[in-house]
Design goal:
Length: 81
């Protein structure tokens, strides 16, 4: 894996863990780590983290789509031989 892919995967896992904790325990881990704000409150830093998590998810989706397209092209050319 390339460094951007590792970083994106780590951010997506942080986001998934955070949403799991929000759903199960109404506990926002990101907000707590970044200043112990009340549930639902955001700071500039937490909003940056949430934005990075969202961008990492978009990066992951684009990577998956490219990978699937690349695989489909390889399969089609292999079948044409």
């Amino acid at each position: 894996m390339k460094k951007p892919e590792v970083a994106a995967a780590a951010l997506v896992l942080v986001g998934a863990l955070n949403w799991g904790l929000v759903g199960i325990a109404k506990f926002d881990l990101v907000a707590w780590v970044l200043g112990g704000m009340d549930f639902g409150e955001t700071s500039v830093v937490s909003r940056i983290v949430y934005s990075l998590v969202g961008a990492a998810a978009v990066y992951g989706i684009v990577s998956i789509m490219r990978s699937r397209r690349h695989t489909a092209v390889r399969t089609a050319t292999a079948g044409a031989r």
